[in-house]
Design a protein that fits this description.
With 205 residues, the protein is of the alpha+beta class. Helices cover 55% and strands 12% of the residues. The protein is built from nine helices and five strands. The chain has a five-stranded mixed sheet. β2, α2 and β3 form a beta-alpha-beta unit. The longest helix is centred in the first third of the chain and has 19 residues.
Length: 205
């Protein structure tokens, strides 16, 4: 009986080791050549790089939202809208505007739905202001903030992070300014979050 119990413990231990070694640098995630300073060193920062026009970001959003709700206080989650071309900038500005106005929760999923389900196109401030007003955001505040210094600063900081994180596709996840994860490397969107969990735990140890 004791030998059977010991064998079971050994098997469980071996399984846990296998799980811990399941994800490898260079295979399932990339180690960034230079670590980027995070906002709060007392927490593990997890950043999603996304774009509203991206269909893969749209399918990833429900998975990510569920993941975010499960995180403890030790994880500092952030989003950065990536600007791949001029047509992406108005939507990145809209995200930062909503963030500054405290309206992301109300508008974020709605933007994905508008673009990918309702086939809306947002090419300028007027179209975005109309839509955000329909969502209950103060139109005057939205218009005033959209081209503000604060939004311009956030755009510049976001562009800097894109370069530092070496982002060439979205959605991408970055853990603690050190590791970049993509669905292609991880083996799928759900698997990408498992790699993120592994790296968060690695950083917390």
């Amino acid at each position: 009986m004791f030998k059977k119990l010991l064998s079971a413990v050994v098997l469980i231990g071996a399984s846990l080791v296998a799980q811990a070694e399941e994800f490898e640098a260079g295979k399932h995630y990339e180690v960034l050549p230079t670590a980027v300073k995070t906002a709060d060193p007392s927490k593990v920062e997890v950043t999603e790089m996304f774009g509203y026009p991206c269909p893969h970001c749209n399918t990833f959003e429900p998975l990510l939202e569920s993941w975010v709700k499960q995180q403890a206080d030790g994880v500092d989650f952030k989003r950065i809208p990536v600007v791949f071309g001029r047509s992406w900038e108005p939507m990145a500005r809209a995200y930062y505007t909503a963030e500054l106005l405290g309206e992301v929760e109300k508008t974020h999923q709605a933007m994905f739905d508008a673009i990918h389900l309702q086939r809306k196109r947002f090419r300028d401030l007027e179209a975005l202001a109309d839509y955000y007003a329909d969502l209950g955001v103060d139109r005057a505040k939205f218009e005033k903030t959209f081209n503000s210094f604060a939004v311009n600063t956030k755009l510049n900081q976001g562009d800097s992070k894109v370069r530092s994180y070496q982002i060439d596709g979205v959605p991408s996840m970055v853990v603690n300014g050190k590791y970049r994860i993509t669905a292609a490397m991880a083996g799928g969107q759900q698997q990408m979050l498992k790699v993120v969990d592994y790296l968060v735990e690695k950083e917390q140890q």
